[in-house]
Amino acid sequence: MKFILVISFIAVGLMACSPQNQQDVKQQKSAEEAEQSTQVIFECERDEAITVRFFTDSERAVMTRNNEDIELKQERAASGFLYSNGPNSIRGKGDDLTLHIGRMAPINCRAM
Questions:
Q1: % pLDDT > 70, the chain
Q2: Where does the record place the C-type lysozyme inhibitor domain (predicted)?
Q3: If I label 92, which of 8, 18, 33, 42 is the partner at 20 to 30 A Cα–Cα?
């Protein structure tokens, strides 16, 4: 009887570690994040586009530029919004956004 119980626990543990189950968990997490965020696509100077996901459950945003995700924390702004992680920041109001990357010249963008 103990043997059957031990085998049952091992089987359940292995099922939880299966690649399919891990894929299901990742998909569920992505779906939950999508529900808790607002995604905006911005068209920028130099024919560049960036995507920003503003998370409603936390004070953060994730900017995607050149297929790279950059996480930013919300900062205080006199008006509009400001998110930064030090060298990278986005500042905006309404449909307009200014992207600052290190010491590069600011890039102006507009929501599509």
A1: 70
A2: 42-106
A3: 33
Structure tokens, 10 = 């091992």
Q: What are phi and psi of 28, to 5 degrees?
A: -65, -40
pTM of the model: 0.68
For 36, other C-beta atoms within 10 Å of its C-beta total 13
Distance CA 100, CA 108 (A): 9
Break the chain into its structural domains and give their ranges: 1-35, 36-112
List, for residues 43-78, the tens digit of each pLDDT value.
999 899 999 999 988 999 999 999 999 999 999 999
Domain 36-112 fold: Lipocalin (2.40.128)
One-character DSSP codes across 36-73: TEEEEEEEEGGGEEEEEEEETTTTEEEEEETTEEEEEE
Three-state secondary-structure class, residue 67: coil
